[in-house]
Design brief:
The protein is of the alpha+beta class. Helices cover 31% and strands 26% of the residues. The strands form nine sheets. It has a five-stranded antiparallel beta sheet, with no helix packed on it. A hairpin with a 2-residue loop joins strand 15 and strand 16. The longest helix is centred in the C-terminal third of the chain and has 24 residues. It starts with a helix and ends with a helix.
Length: 640
């Protein structure tokens, strides 16, 4: 009846009019009508005035989620409006970040400013618990939330503190909400704020991740030790096949294994994954807990698994030389990368090798020690790599776009303290496993498509039209062309664009490079820094002597690239720029201080030159100009 009422009430309407419209004649349906109207009013969808019911939106009243900025003001995102409503700090009342609220518009949207409103009341709270640091003041305890968005102090009575002392990291249950403060009680003491690993543990609890499993779940898995003979019925026995796992050196949950054989000129690739469904039965405590968690959580120094480690690292991990229950996708693939036959079935395997990415890469690179250690399977790795390249070439022919980026890896010591950040290598072994998983996923998806069964597919939506328009605008300005339009572009067109800018001076371009343009005194400072830091690369578009002359000309800008992950000592005045994910080109005719320009805008640098193409053609020859374009596309970041 709720949807029916909301469609019927388009203007002020009395309850008698609603009875007539809905043809309600009996008492039970009338009671249902009154009850539904009250519920819709409570939920902020209707208002009642002078015995008339009307849609709340007709009176500038909306329901939405409140997002509070660290400075105290907020925005309410509603389904009824195209843009959110700005709520000043003094109009937020006792609402908190992520609460569902009823907000009333106090100023309509105008030229240059958002619609403004005030929170009338909170419909539902999103934060029942908070993590923070405990401290005493006079006769009362307080907790400062870790998240600066929650600016209100939490008052704790002594009897509700669980004995917490100064600088204890605690988990607090919120009992009551006030405009200036929040009342709560300590439900768990995590430890001292300076304890090793406490920062990570605080993040775990902040996001309501559960490191430990309930007792009833652990009781259900205590007998899951080895594969039992009766579990092998109706399974294809693949234990004599050469299955191997290839994972990171620190991986504990080995959930997929691969086997590659030859059949004439074709490859027979089998991808097996752990059959978790054999152990996680629908409706069990284990199933319900896994549903709550939805996914394993990977943190810097630990993993919080979706299922207990007895399963994830044990019976459901494809460890070497032990029987494991699996689901297998077996594919016959021709020399062009086309899957010509396939089968999907329940199986049992016995993995023969637990390989790491590094070990396989060493074999493929010709490392004698690695090839000697794995002499029996060296040819297998080369066959795998050959098939992976065939599959990749086929995907490229279909228009697949390579969004390969550098992934940082944080190194921590035994106490959990970060000691280094390195770039995680992605070489042939990582790529071949990725290709094998992709072809298996595509094969299974196509299999169920033709069966016309209900199925969950992994999809990639069309690129955002506005972002594509921005990309077209940028590439057009730089003289590059993309086939298609902003609302109709084939992936191969974007692939061609990336390929055309992939190399500069014979080197593969690193992703996430930023363009910095300076002049005068500031340019000398940056140039000096570039010469001293090996991680900064000059654009080799001009001979060195010409480049040096260019730096000395104050009317022009000087250009270099840097990698945001590998510069530890960049000039402090430019650090603000590095915080933004979408780089902006910086240009001006007569600027003398790059720092002044940084401060001009909150989201990057201003552009003061109208025709950038003319400017760059003054600096570079046409051939150099074409080479230079590759870097600017990474600045756009328009379609990721």
């Amino acid at each position: 009846m709720k949807d029916q009422l909301l469609s019927v009430i388009q203007k002020p309407t009395t309850i008698e009019e609603l009875k007539s419209i809905l043809a309600i004649t009996d008492a039970s349906n009338f009671k249902l009508l009154v009850k539904t109207l009250n519920e819709l009013e409570d939920k902020g969808h209707l208002i009642i005035k002078d015995d008339y019911y009307d849609l709340a939106t007709n009176h500038g009243i909306y329901v939405g989620e409140l997002s509070i900025n660290k400075k105290g003001f907020g925005f309410v995102d509603t389904e009824s409006l195209d843009s959110d409503i700005f709520v000043p700090k003094h109009e937020i009342s006792n609402a908190m970040h992520r609460d569902i609220v009823i907000v009333q518009s106090t100023r309509p949207k105008g030229e240059g400013f958002k619609q403004e409103g005030r929170v009338l009341r909170v419909l539902s709270r999103s934060n029942k618990f908070l993590i923070g640091t405990y401290y005493d003041y006079k006769d009362r305890g307080y907790v400062t939330p870790d998240d600066a968005i929650f600016a209100k102090k939490i008052k704790i009575r002594k009897e509700d503190s669980l004995g917490a002392v100064e600088n204890h990291k605690v988990r607090v249950e919120i009992l009551d909400y006030f405009e200036e403060s929040v009342k709560g009680q300590v439900v768990e003491i995590l430890g001292h704020k300076n304890d090793p690993g406490m920062d990570i543990l605080s993040i775990v609890y902040k996001h309501n991740f559960r490191p430990d499993f309930p007792k009833d779940v652990l009781d259900e898995v205590k007998d899951f030790n080895d594969v039992k003979e009766n579990e092998l019925e109706n399974r294809v026995d693949l234990r004599d096949k050469l299955f191997i796992t290839i994972d990171g050196a620190d991986a504990k949950d080995l959930d997929d294994a691969v086997c590659l054989e030859k059949s004439g000129d074709n490859f027979v690739l089998s991808v097996s994954i752990a059959d978790v469904s054999n152990y996680v039965k629908e409706g069990t405590s284990l199933d319900k807990e896994a549903l709550k968690r939805s996914t394993s959580v990977y943190l810097v120094d630990r993993v919080i698994p979706m299922i207990p480690r007895k399963l994830s690292n044990g019976i459901c991990s494809l460890n070497p030389n032990v029987d494991r229950l699996t689901l297998t996708c077996e594919m016959e693939i021709d020399k062009h990368g086309t899957v010509i036959n396939h089968d999907i079935y329940q199986s049992v395997i016995n993995s023969k090798y637990r390989m790491t990415y590094t070990e396989v890469n060493d074999v493929l690179k010709g490392n004698i020690e690695a090839q000697t250690k794995y002499a029996q399977i060296v040819s297998l790795f080369f066959d795998m790599n050959r098939l992976a390249k065939i599959l990749n070439s086929r995907r490229e022919r279909r228009g697949s776009i390579n969004f390969e980026t550098n992934e940082p890896k944080i190194i921590v010591d035994e106490t959990g303290f970060p000691t280094d950040i390195i770039v995680r290598d992605r070489e042939d072994s990582e790529k071949l496993i990725e290709e094998f998983m992709l072809v298996a996923n595509e094969t299974i998806a196509e299999h169920f498509h033709w069966l016309d069964y209900p199925f969950i597919y992994r999809t990639h939506d069309e690129p955002n039209e506005e972002k594509l328009r921005n990309l077209y605008k940028l590439t057009g300005m730089l003289g590059l062309k993309i086939k298609g339009t902003a609302n109709s572009v084939h992936p191969s067109a974007l692939q061609d664009l990336l390929k055309s800018i992939e190399y500069l001076d014979g080197e593969t371009s690193p992703n996430y490079y930023f363009l910095v343009i300076g002049s005068g005194t500031e340019a000398y400072k940056v140039a000096d820094f570039a010469q001293k830091n090996q991680n900064v690369t000059y654009l080799s578009l001009l001979p060195k002597d010409e480049f040096d002359k260019l730096v000395g000309i104050s009317d022009f800008w000087f250009i270099f690239l840097y990698n945001r992950f590998t510069i530890p000592n960049f000039p402090s005045r430019l650090l603000t720029y590095m915080e933004y994910s979408i780089p902006v080109i910086v240009m001006a005719n007569n600027a003398t201080d790059l720092g002044d320009i940084v401060e001009e805008g909150n989201f990057g640098f201003k552009c003061n030159i109208k025709d950038t193409k003319i400017l760059y053609k003054k600096l570079f020859s046409v051939s150099h100009w074409e080479q230079f374009l590759f870097s600017l596309l990474f600045l756009a970041n328009c379609i990721s």
